[in-house]
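[User] I have long wanted to understand how a fold can be written as tokens. Those tokens are not coordinates but codes from a learned vocabulary of shapes. Could you go through the record with me and say what the backbone is doing? Thank you; the sequence and its tokens follow:
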Amino acid sequence: MLSLLSDLFINLCVLVALIFIYLQLRWKIKLEEKSSISSIIIDGFAGGILGYILMNFSIQVTSETIVDLRFIPVMLIILFIGIPHAIISAFLIILSRFIFGVTVSAVAAMILMVILIIGFIFINRIYKKYKFDPNSYKHSLFMIIFSNIVFCIIISFLVEDMELLKSLIPSYWIISIIGGLTSVFFVEYIRKTQYLLMKYEKESTTDFLTGLNNVRQFDAIWNSLTSNATSKNERLSLLIIDIDHFKQVNDTFGHPIGDMILIELGKILKSSTRSFDVVSRNGGEEFSVILPDCPHHLAKEIAERIRKAVEIHNFHVSPKETVKLTISIGVATYPETVSDTNQIVDMADECLYKAKRSGRNRVCANYDGE
């Protein structure tokens, strides 16, 4: 029995290691963001390959019969990804088993996998239909127990040695339950870790209020685009935008209403610019728009379009009350108005201040006078 436990433990270690590796790869290629067909095919093949590798570390019970934990990848895919993915995995695992020989045991393994995939799908649907406890450990435990019962019935027909069965079946139950629950734990842990990491990465580059780029992300993108503009001699424009008299809005209606206005303004900026322009909230009521490969005349047109869109927009301060706001915009373009990329931000700032001093609600694109 100790030998069987040792062999099954090796199978478990291989399983956990491969699950960890695949989930990392799945996250790196952002598979969840790809089309459903791509996800079904890739996840399905991954589960099938995992099952095949587990068979290579299986226990040779008789000359024809091998035992391993190949059912676990199928179970995990049903639990965490989807049924179509799991069906592909089960089909590939069935085909892979015949690579080890077309025998009675291979046919029995095929029957076992067909019964398991049907049973797993049934258990999964029962859970969803009656909205049982969503705890994945209880969910998976029912699947593992079902799998073990079916396994015991089929293996009893294949192995005639009762002494061998007395050690094999208890060992298999112990390792399959430990292996199944451990695999669920690892998948949940890795998924939560990846979710938190993605959340922190997004929060580090995104303005918490408007969902636009924050100043840190603005700096990173700006440094990249200025370097690219210099090396390729491309035009690069920048708009710096400030809401006129925004302090009065906060003083009159309160900061929660001011926040709602900032969110609405962010939407206007996104809808009034090109799809590849970079819109950021640089702090407070100051926003910016980076315009890659944009000549000065077009930058002024885009700035004027934004100014007019804000001017005619009704900003809601209550269900029945709206206010009108205006913005001032400073524009600078490399190399047309600024010969050094390091001075673009300063020039756009100076133009913004000129727009403020000239009466607000305007676009200023030349600090020396237009």
In short: Residues 162-205 form the longest helix (44 residues). Strands lie at 59-60, 66-67, 236-243, 278-283, 286-292, 315-316, 322-323, 327-334, 363-364. DSSP finds twelve helices and nine strands in the chain. The chain has a mean pLDDT of 89.
